[in-house]
Amino acid sequence: MKKKQKNVSITIPTATTVISTSESGKSMVEMLGVLALMGLLAVLGAKGYSMAMERATANRIVEEINRRSIVYSQQLLMTTSNTALNHSELATEIEGGYPVSGNRFGDDYFQIVVQKLPQNICTRIGKLGYARAIQVLANGTALTTADQSACQATGNVLIFTFTKDMTPCDECLNNTKSCETDSQCATNQTCQNGMCLCSPYYACNGTCCPAGQFCVNGQCSANDSCQSTDDCDQGLCISGKCQCRSYRDNCTYFCEMSNENYGICSTGAYYEEGAFSMAGTIWSTKAMKWGAALDFCASHEKQMVSLSDLGCVADGDTYTCTIPEKFKGHGNVWTSDPKDNARVSIWVVNTSTGAVGSGGWNGYQHFFLALCH
Predict the structure, then answer these.
(1) CA–CA dist 46, 49 (Å, integer)
(2) What is the DSSP letter of 247?
(3) How is the chain split into domains, by residue range?
(4) What does the pLDDT look like over 101-145, one tens digit per residue?
(5) Reported pTM
(6) DSSP conformation class of 143
């Protein structure tokens, strides 16, 4: 029997060719790096924008200070010291909602005050610097390009102080920031609205003359010589020197008589406006020399009291005084009566005790109150 042949099919695997394709992309680490870089650029961009806004705000404030300083300067140059600054055409706030105001200090100075500033703006203004003002304070402390440490976290108050013609005046403030009385200031300064500022007698062409020097022809000089009154900052040119004969001779305060006929314009160090004791009666608040006391009364269009006004009656070489009530109790006062008509001394009356004495006519050693009526 013949076997039937069985066909067997064998499949031989052929070599499979593996084709590798190149994919374009980044690893996870690389992607994180890109994101971090983008974040950093965003932060830097935001910070740069914030700094640019700070600079813009600080510049706007400085521009407003510039504008107001010109307005106030013109007002001081055109008005007297008892005329308040006019703010009627000026906004009460700088752009950004920061309150701003101005104050006048006598004939020579004014301030511009900006309030509620944030620390970054306060610091930025300090870094910018502001040379037109003779002083910039942040919260009562000097703010300079080198030091902005006075700037607080919030609520900063900046005070810009100017001379009326906005000229540099490095010695005007003499590093003194505040005061209550003239005695707390240097001898060439007076306490003006809480600040020690150069007294008008020493103010000279944008600077403050040292004590003992005076402004002659626009320069500080220990020699008050002159050729004409035009050379005298105050007073009249008399016998080649700047002198005065009364407070009306262009003196800012009073004429301090150095002899019977002439004197020099006083610095105002111990001369002050009086207070009304009763209607029609004026007392000086400080003692002064006789010549200044006489000027004090004349400046108020009053007369110095006499012995008879004070109820003093002569009894031989002595006086008995019955002081009227309205003249009582403020101390020793000058009278208009020469002692013994010799024009070498003046009678002085104690308004508390009624005692009568005398003070030298030239007043070199004697300081008493002025009483005018």
Answers:
(1) 5
(2) T
(3) 50-163, 182-265, 275-372
(4) 888 876 778 889 999 999 999 999 998 888 788 888 888 788 888
(5) 0.44
(6) -
